[in-house]
């Protein structure tokens, strides 16, 4: 009953904020323990991530990756499917991007390459998610197990391709050749430079804009189309969905394909936008962190974009931290991330009741006062 | 004076935010009596009992047990004060034996042997004293619901309960089981136990209680001795206005057969759940399907609605023939002109987290009406929902409100409105008034009857015999996947139907309908 009176912003802003603050507070204790002044550390991280345009660029570059993997997890989650395979889907999508870039990049012009790259990344990601989805829908193999296994299979296949197929003849490193320039997604600093805005060179590229567009499209898809309606119905109440004539098999396949496609777009940001070649393990855990991003962003596109920026800040700030304080490892950021996941994921409801009570008390007080004034 | 009261409540007050669930409730329950508490859903009965049992704490007021003021901060305090509660939904470990369930939480040590011996002895005593017979070594899930409920009562008594609260205890029982329960309750009362019976079934209040308190909108509106009142008076007190229990039935001949089921068999994992069922429903009549829940009625509805498949037989829906091999789905069936109000609105009819707009398009969400190209036509959906909410008097009439926030009656109105507004020729209705207040029952019954009077073929499945008897033209009774028999509504009474629900075909039943339909 009383939950009706709690406005959305408490749930979507205040509670997550309290969780993050708590995570930062505990992190501060960790910093004190390793002998670093937490205030100094925070300053370094903030300066490093937002203090100058290079920091900004890196922060948003990382954030772009998280937007894709976070959206991928969230859309599956709305259908009550836990897609842990974002890592593998993003990795496998890299193969699609690499093949298109290497074999067509010299032939086709830039404006034709861009849509092709998007299609290739999406298709390879979706394809890699489709197999576990099919096994879940038709055979009942649990999607958590199969997507985890598919991460390993993707890693093996990619290792094979990198060593046996894509590695240039004289090279010793398990990397593909550098992609032709026509398949490079323009960097943000070049793009803005063309309009007269100066920005330091960073890996941030136009995929960021594409990520934001994807977030908006995901929102439209989930809440403004019949397919999104079916996905959410299936997620909330499978037997009601069945009653409504929603085919659980079709909807599982559709959801996972879209989820895999979004994870696949990760390849655009990292490969076409920055590295310009396929490297071993290039996803580097971004797929897994996408789970935390989605969790933190409450599976809502707006929340996911904000959470992505927070995690981008942690990545970039953490790198600066390791740079400034030689004594501490950049892995300290993993601790910070872990705490954020702990507080905003596992302990999500710890502060919720007390915050709601506080709000009700505050507004109740106001209502009494209004009454008194009216009297 | 106060000594003669087992429970005394004084000025119990409880608010949940804006909702004033209990308004200064006073209640006195005499020791060794059966005290009924009636009221519509949301009148505050459950809140009040939860306060007595320690699930909630009252904002204000006093509770006296046996004349002594007590503070109840949790169910342990309530149990210590001698209060036992039998919940509507049983709280039993299904794969434990009766004995293990009874002693759960009071094992009396790490090794079970000693506790088991003591519990067995105590069970035997309870059995002797109150006629609460049940095999202590039976596994719970193998027992019929009536016996499971008895185990719940035993659990409470084993913990030393002198005051027994039963929350809607008869919802899952056959009339005969209900009668047996009432015998037990009377035996308990005669031995000095105080019984509080919460129910919305006025018939039961009249049958078993000594005193009755009526709640309405969070307040106590009347305390009366049962002998001094009757059903109509109680209903009026509950609702606050006169209530009509009967619905207008236009006398007319039934028309063409709209729904025909021939030799329907449904098997699941080798078990025959529906066994060679045949019946038909004509335009302009209501066929009632009675039976204790779990005898195949739910499955039958799902099969007819296209949600589940069947093994053999033939179904003819509004002229469309369905065989086991026909590919069908709820969508296809809907397009054949079938409306379906599912038995369980929470499990099937609605999605709690969807808002009213989304609830109103469920099952029809793919229709061109609600979509514009790739996108949903949100503006039209909202307008359409708003109109239906007004015609069907759904309160509050806010299309953005989450389904879960509506009362049971209004949720059910949403489901029925959605299906009726599509103007189906065949209308499948399951438990249309489960968990719905009297005012809404009146309204829903009228709408179902309207469908019949307009010439629709209505199949009504319900475990409420009153409902079946007041709405149906013909009645079939199901038992273990079979039809026990068929009656004309005029020939049906509670006793006959009750026996048929237990698979006994009474000798004196007028079976003319049955013969003419099948021979």
How would you describe this structure in keywords?
heterodimer; A: 375 residues; mainly alpha; ABC transporter involved in vitamin B12 uptake, BtuC; 2 domains; 0% strand; globular; disordered C terminus; B: 519 residues; alpha/beta; Rossmann fold; 6-stranded mixed β-sheet; 34% helix
Radius of gyration of chain A: 23 Å
List the total number of helices of chain B: 18
Low-confidence stretches of chain B: 512-519
CATH topology of the largest domain in chain A: ABC transporter involved in vitamin B12 uptake, BtuC
Q: What is the CA-CA span between the terminal residues of chain B? A: 68 Å
What does the model show?
The complex is a heterodimer of chains A (375) and B (519). Chain A is mainly alpha-helical and 375 residues long. Chain A has helices spanning 8-33, 38-51, 53-78, 86-104, 110-139, 143-166, 188-194, 207-224, 226-236, 238-243, 248-264, 266-275, 286-296, 301-324, 332-346, 352-374. Residues 367-375 of chain A have low confidence and may be disordered. Chain A folds into two domains: 1-36 and 325-375, no CATH class; 57-312, ABC transporter involved in vitamin B12 uptake, BtuC (Orthogonal Bundle), CATH 1.10.3470. Chain B is built from 18 helices and 22 strands. Chain B has a six-stranded mixed beta sheet with strand order 6-7-8-3-9-10, with helices on both faces. Chain B has a six-stranded mixed beta sheet with strand order 16-19-20-13-21-22, with helices on both faces. The radius of gyration of chain B is 25 Å and the shape is globular. Chain A binds chain B through residues 1-2, 4-5, 220, 224-226, 229-230, 232-233, 236-237, 239-245, 247, 360, and chain B through 16-19, 21, 305-307, 329-332, 334, 340, 342, 347-354, 358, 361-363, 365-366, 370-371, 374-376, 378, 405.
């Amino acid at each position: 009953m009383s939950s009706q009176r709690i406005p959305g912003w408490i749930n979507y802003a205040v509670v997550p904020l309290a969780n993050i603050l708590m995570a930062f507070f505990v992190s501060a204790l960790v910093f004190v323990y390793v002998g670093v002044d937490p205030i100094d550390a925070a300053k370094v991280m903030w300066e490093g991530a937002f203090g100058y345009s290079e920091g900004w660029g890196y922060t948003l570059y990382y954030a772009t990756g998280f937007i894709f993997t976070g959206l991928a997890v969230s859309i599956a989650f709305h259908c009550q499917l836990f897609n842990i395979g974002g890592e593998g889907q993003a990795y496998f999508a890299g193969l699609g991007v690499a093949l298109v870039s290497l074999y067509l990049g010299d032939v086709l012009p830039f404006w034709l390459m861009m849509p092709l790259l998007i299609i290739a990344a999406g298709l390879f990601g979706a394809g890699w998610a489709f197999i576990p989805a099919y096994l879940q829908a038709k055979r009942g193999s649990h999607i958590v197990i199969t997507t985890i296994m598919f991460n390993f299979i993707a890693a093996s296949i990619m290792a094979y391709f990198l060593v046996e197929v894509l590695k240039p003849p004289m090279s010793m490193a398990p990397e593909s050749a550098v992609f032709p320039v026509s398949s490079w997604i323009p960097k943000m600093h070049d793009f803005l430079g063309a309009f007269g805005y100066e920005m330091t060179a960073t890996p941030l590229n136009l995929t960021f804009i594409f990520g934001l567009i994807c977030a908006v499209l995901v929102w439209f898809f989930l809440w403004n189309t019949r397919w999104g309606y079916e996905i959410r119905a299936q997620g909330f109440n499978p037997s009601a969905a069945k009653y409504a004539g929603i085919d659980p098999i079709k909807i599982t396949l559709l959801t996972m394909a879209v989820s895999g496609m979004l994870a696949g777009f990760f390849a655009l940001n990292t490969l076409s936008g920055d590295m310009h070649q396929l490297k071993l393990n290039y996803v580097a855990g971004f797929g897994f962190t996408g789970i935390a991003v989605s969790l933190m962003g409450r599976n809502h596109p707006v929340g996911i974009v904000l959470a992505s920026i927070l995690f981008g800040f942690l990545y970039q700030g953490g790198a600066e931290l390791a740079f400034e304080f030689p004594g501490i490892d950049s892995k300290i950021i993993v601790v910070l991330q872990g705490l954020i996941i702990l507080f905003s994921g596992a302990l999500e409801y710890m502060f919720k009741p007390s915050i709601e009570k506080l709000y009700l008390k505050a507004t109740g007080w106001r209502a009494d006062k209004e009454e008194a004034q009216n009297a | 004076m106060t000594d003669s009261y087992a429970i005394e409540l004084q000025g119990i007050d409880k608010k949940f935010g804006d909702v004033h669930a209990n308004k200064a409730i006073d209640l006195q329950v005499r020791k060794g009596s059966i005290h009924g508490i009636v009221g519509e859903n949301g009148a505050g009965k459950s809140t009040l009992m939860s306060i007595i049992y320690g699930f909630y704490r009252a904002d204000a007021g006093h509770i006296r047990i046996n004349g002594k003021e007590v503070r109840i901060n949790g169910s342990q305090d309530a149990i210590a004060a001698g209060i036992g509660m039998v919940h509507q939904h049983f709280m039993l470990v299904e794969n434990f034996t009766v004995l293990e369930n009874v002693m759960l939480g009071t094992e009396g040590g790490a090794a079970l042997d000693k506790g088991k011996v003591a519990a067995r002895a105590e069970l035997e005593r309870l059995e002797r004293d109150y006629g609460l017979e049940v095999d202590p070594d039976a596994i719970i899930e193998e027992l019929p619901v009536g016996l499971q409920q008895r185990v719940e009562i035993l659990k409470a008594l084993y913990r030393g309960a002198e005051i027994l609260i039963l929350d809607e205890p008869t919802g899952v029982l056959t009339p005969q089981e209900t009668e047996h329960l009432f015998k037990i309750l009377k035996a308990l009362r005669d031995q000095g136990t105080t019984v509080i019976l919460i129910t919305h079934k006025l018939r039961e209040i009249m049958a078993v209680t000594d005193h009755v308190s009526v709640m309405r909108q969070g307040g106590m509106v009347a305390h009366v001795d049962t002998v001094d009142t009757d059903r109509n008076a109680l209903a009026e007190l509950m609702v606050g206005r006169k209530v009509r229990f009967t619905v207008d039935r236009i006398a007319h001949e039934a028309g063409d057969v709209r729904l025909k089921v021939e030799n329907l068999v449904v098997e699941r994992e080798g078990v025959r759940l529906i066994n060679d069922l045949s019946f038909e429903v004509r335009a302009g009549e209501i066929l009632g399907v009675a039976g204790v829940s779990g005898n195949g009625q739910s499955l039958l509805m799902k099969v007819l609605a296209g949600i589940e498949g069947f093994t053999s037989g033939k179904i003819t829906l509004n002229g469309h023939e369905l065989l086991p091999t026909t590919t069908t789905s709820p969508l296809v069936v809907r397009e054949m002109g079938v409306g379906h109000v599912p038995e369980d609105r929470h499990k099937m009819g609605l999605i709690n987290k969807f808002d009213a707009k989304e609830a109103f398009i469920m099952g029809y969400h793919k229709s061109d009406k609600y979509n514009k190209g790739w996108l949903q036509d949100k503006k039209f959906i909202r307008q359409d929902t708003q109109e239906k909410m007004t015609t069907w008097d759904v309160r509050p009439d806010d299309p953005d409100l989450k389904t879960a926030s509506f009362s049971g009656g209004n949720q059910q109105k949403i489901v029925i409105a959605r299906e009726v507004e599509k103007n189906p020729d065949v209308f499948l209705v399951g438990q249309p008034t489960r968990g719905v207040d009297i005012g809404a029952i009146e309204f829903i019954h009228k709408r179902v009857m309207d469908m019949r009077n307009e010439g629709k073929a209505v199949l009504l499945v319900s475990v409420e015999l009153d409902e079946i008897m007041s709405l149906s033209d013909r009645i079939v009774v199901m038992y273990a996947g079979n039809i026990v028999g068929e009656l004309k509504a005029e020939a049906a009474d509670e006793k006959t139907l009750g026996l048929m629900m237990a698979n006994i075909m009474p000798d004196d039943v007028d079976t003319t309908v049955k013969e003419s339909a099948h021979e």
